[in-house]
Every structure is written in structure tokens, then in C-alpha cells.
Amino acid sequence: MEVKRDILWRVYLCFLGIVGISLVVLGKAFYIQHVQGAYWRGMSDSLHQKFVELDAERGTIYSEDSSMLSTSIPYFNIYIDFGADGLREKNGKRFTENLDSLSLCLSGLFKDQSAQAYKKDLLSGYRSVDRYYLLQSNVSFEKYQRLRNFPLVRQGRNRSGFIAEVNNKRLNPFGLLANRTIGLARANAQNVGLERTYDTVLKGEVGRRLVRYIAGGTYIPVEGYEIESENGKDIITTLDVNIQDIAENALLKELTANDAEHGTCIVMEVATGKIRAIANLGRQSDGGYWEDLNYAIRATEPGSTFKLATLLSLLEDKKITLNDQLNLEGGSWKVSGRTVYDAEPHESRMFTVKQAFEISSNVAMAKLAVAHYSNSPGQFVDHLKKLRLNQPTGVDLLGEGMPIVKTPKSRTWSNTSLPWMAFGYEVLVTPLQTLTLYNAVANNGRMMKPYLVSALQESGITIKENHPTVLIENICSESTLRQLQDCLYAVCNSTDEGATGAKLFKNAFYKVAGKTGTALVANGSRGYADHIYQSSFVGYFPASAPRYTCIVVIKNKPFAKVYYGAAVAGPVFKELADRLMSADAGAATPPVFSRDSAKFYYAGLTSDIKKVEEMMSMGYMDSAGKNEWSRLYTSTAEGRPVLGRATVARQVVPDVKGMGLKDALYLLESMDLRVSVSGSGRVRSQSPEPGAALAKKETISIQLN
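Given the sequence above, the corresponding C-alpha cells read:
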């Protein structure tokens, strides 16, 4: 009995131990499930779920006439969740019933495999319960729209298991046109051009989406857990597609004909500083040309186009007059052990300063600089600084080159720095800087800041507008300005033999004022041994009432047979000017607005337009604010009218197109202009065109429709 009792005691003790342990386990399980449950479920989710960013739709870049220059096109990756409840309910009845018709439709849409092959793939994915089966990638929006109406797919995501993942691709519809300036939005490389400068504006605000981890390292979206992204804003540039196309093609033709290294062509509106075209072409490895680098904002030795700054300094300091006589030494002159050469030797006679400028004499500029500034070179350098040639223009493009203008305190300053700077060597400036200086001369001394973006828009409504900015009100005195204008006019129109631009524009039906330039440039460690020349032409037209300033700079190949500025860069300038002036001459027949109510354009006093809109209950979008003048037009896909600001600047001819006669007369006459009227109705054309330099008491002709 003692043995039996001892065994039972041990059994009971073990039983009680097991019960105790079981109670502890159950208690712990209860505690984990009900007390710590939320914590551990959250921990599980954190290991199997995460938030990913959703890119916003990038804003569109437009030209000033609303042509798309860069936009985002949606593409879709199509997945199928074969584990979706709606797809597997009733033993997969819905899937089985639609399988054949769906396979047939997919084969017809994508045309990459037969309907039987699609059926086999779908069955395989269904049997393996693939939760994120990739059906197709990079599907266009058009095909995606058709896919949504296919059997099974049209029943919705929960029942069909179909998941569409949107990806946006950047597209430049015009291809080469201003490609480098507009730039590229690239996923794995640095953006360039406007895409880079205005990246934060264009890209908008990213959203977030909750995704769940499944086997194979794949995540699938959790429906209902998304924070929508905020789309980027649109950019309205100052570029004119027509002018850009002319500039691009004229430059390409000349580069190809001369087998040149690269070139740039910039067109600026005189009165405002708006850049209407900016072409940059460089030779590629296959011999063709592409917009590879923005040569317009890269600093180089400008050569003879810099002589305008030297002449301005001399005239402004009253060191010389244009009729002063100079001995050009036959075209070569020694100074401090070095020799200054002109492009061609001259006969041994005296030249006036004006004649020396016409024939682009390096000797003349060097001798004048040494004669008048050798004792005070800082005085000459100060003029260059006042003209802002020692600082970037501030154009809205990242990567603008930093100019270099030596001073007597510079480490590399020597006895020959002053004479060589006088004709455009030992200084580095960008073509855009040179253009800005010449544009100031064309604009009666007022230097305008060049700019590329005129407005930012959101859903068709202007939220920010850039206006012309004056950098320098007067670059020089009135007397100096007139003499500079006369010299530039003489370069292209003088009857004197040797004027470098006269032959080029001899038979033109309009007048040009400008300057040629030919600079010998170094080729790396080889120095100047390869005889590489940079050809330039910069000027404005028409000379009597300038509308556009243009610069063309082309770097030639080594030992090029043709390299003078008038022979290489000049033809590009002339072709562009010919085309633009011909278009103006034939602009008597303006565009006629359609009678379709979805397309209209009106302009006038903001208060009057708003009153009419309110009376007619038009439901317009107002981006005019408190601006005195505005324009009413259709901008949205729904045809909803938008009221936008009409900018009126006191220094340029205003745009009165779309206005009634009363408003047009009030605005023009308040700006001290005389008005000639023909026709009846609203204004459909005007001459001079909007943006031309304003001259008081000038007569402006308006034609009504």
C-alpha cells in the first residue's frame, strides 16, 4: 500500500504540474491575444506592409502660343490578383465563364500571342494562386481604355482581380526643337534645362500608397489606403514654336554645310527681353547634330562682337569721336612684344574710328585702348562691369556659365591684357550676355533681363506671372547711344568697301544693324595650332524700329576653309530675319476665330467683362484678380471660360486684339498714341504688333472684323 500511495502521489503531482503549465500557457496566449494583440498585429503589418510614394502627374511645358513642348503620357502595367475573393468564389465560376472570351480579346488587343496561349497563361496563374501576375507592361492609355471594357475586367477590380499600375513617361512632342533648353525629366539621371530649373514646380506633391508584401519579394496595393498626389503646375514659356523652328533649321543647315563642331542661335524680343528661340546643336559621333549642350550659356572668348563694349567706353568717356583719324599700320601692330593682326591687311591710309569699326579692325581697338586707358585700365574695366559683363544674366536656366573679366589686380593680368581685351580676347562671356548688350542698344539704352518663363498655371488658371525686368535703365548717354547705333547700322549698310556685313544684306528688303565676329579659339593642350575659329554675328532688325535681336555663334572644325563671321554665322541670321520679316509683311490677313462657342477670345476692361459674365451666368474661372485689363478665352477641356490677366506695360505697344473699339481707343490714346481704324466689330489685327518698342505720338493701325 505504501508503494501504491507513493506512486499515486507522484502521478498527482505530475498531473498538477501539467495543469499548472497549461494554465500558464493559456493565460499567456490570452494575454498576448487580447492585451498585446494590437501591438503584435501592428508589428506583423510593419513587416508585411509599407507605404510607397506615388509620383504626381508632372506639369506640362507650353510655348507662348500654347503648343506642348514637354508633357507626361500615362502608361500602365497590368497585373492580376488570382487570389481575389470575387475571382475564386463558387469554385472560380466567374473566371471559368469569362476565360475564353477574355483570352480572345487580349490576343486581339496586344497581338503578341494567340488566344490559346493567353488562356494557358491565365489558367497557370489561377492554379498557382499568383497574387501579382504581370499580364502586360507599358500599355498605352488608348489600349488601357479598351482593356477596361473586356469580359471579366469590366466587372471591377474586386471581382476580376485586375490591377492597373500607372507610370508617367515624359515626352517632347517636337523632338529636337529647343530640346536642351526645355530639358528632359529623367528617372535615373540629372534633369537639364527648364525641367531642372523648375523641377519643384513641375513635379507637384507626391502621394502615398499602402502595399502588402507577398511571396517573391513582391508588394501588392492595399485598396482604400492611398493619399492622392498633387499634380504639378504647368509652365508657359516665352518660346515661339515658329521662330524656334526657323532658328533650328537655319542653324542645322549651316552647321552641316561647314561640318562645324557646334553652334547656337538665340532670338530675343527687344522691348521685353523675352527669349523667342534658343537653338543649340552639337556634332555627334555619327556625324549628325543634336541638342546636346546649351552653348548659349557657356562662356567663351567673344572676339570682335566685344568691340561694341570697347567703343561704348571710349565714346562715353569722351576719349574719341567717330571722325578721329587712325593709322591701322597696314593691318598689324606690335605692342609689348606681341603683334595684333587684323583679319586682312589694309592699304596704307588713314581710317576714321567709324570706318575702322565697320571693317572690324583689331589694330584700331587695341591702339585706342592703349592710347586712352594704359594709365588707368581700371576705368575701362569699370565700364565692362557697369554693362554687367562680369556677371551672369540671371536667365531662368540653371548652369549659366560664369563670365570672366580680368582686372589689373588679376593674377593673369599682363601688359597685353588691355589691348587684347579691347577686341574680345582674354575675356570670357556667354552668347546670351553679348545678345543682352546688343539688345540694350536696340532698345534705346534700356537693358532688359532675358527670361524664358512668362507664367505658371494650375488647371488653366494663372497663379504667377513674370513681367519684363529692367537691369539697367540707361547703359550710356543719349549721344553715345546714337553713335553706337550708327556704327552698327553702317556695318551692315555702308557703301564703303570693307564693311563686314554690307555684302550679306545688300539686297534685303529691310535694314539690319549688327556686328560680325571671328575669334581664334584654343583646342585644349594643342593651343591655337589647329586654327579653329568661332564665327559670330549679332544684331537687330528692322534697324529703324527694332523688334528682334539675334545672335549666332558657330565653332568651326580645325583648318576650316570658310570661317569669317559674315560667311558662316551671318547666313543663319539672315535666313531667320528674312523669314520673320516676310511673315510680318504678309500678316494683313489675321487668323479668324471660329464661331464655335467652345472657342472664343475677348479682351477689355476686367470690370466690364465680369459684369457681362455675371449677367449671362457663364461660370468662368477667374485668374485676372484686380488687374485692370483682362482677356476671356477657353482653356480647359470642358470648354469652361477662363478670365486671365492682360499685361499692359508702359514701354511697349499693348495687345488690343479681341477688344471693342471703345476699349482699344481708350487704352491706346491714354498711352499717347494716334489711332487709325478700319472695319467694325472687335479688333482682329494691329500694326505695330504687340510688344514693339513704344514711341510717343506714333500712329497705330487697328483693323476690326
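The chain has four domains: 2-35, 52-180+202-234, 242-585, 601-704. Try to locate this feature in the C-alpha cell string yourself.
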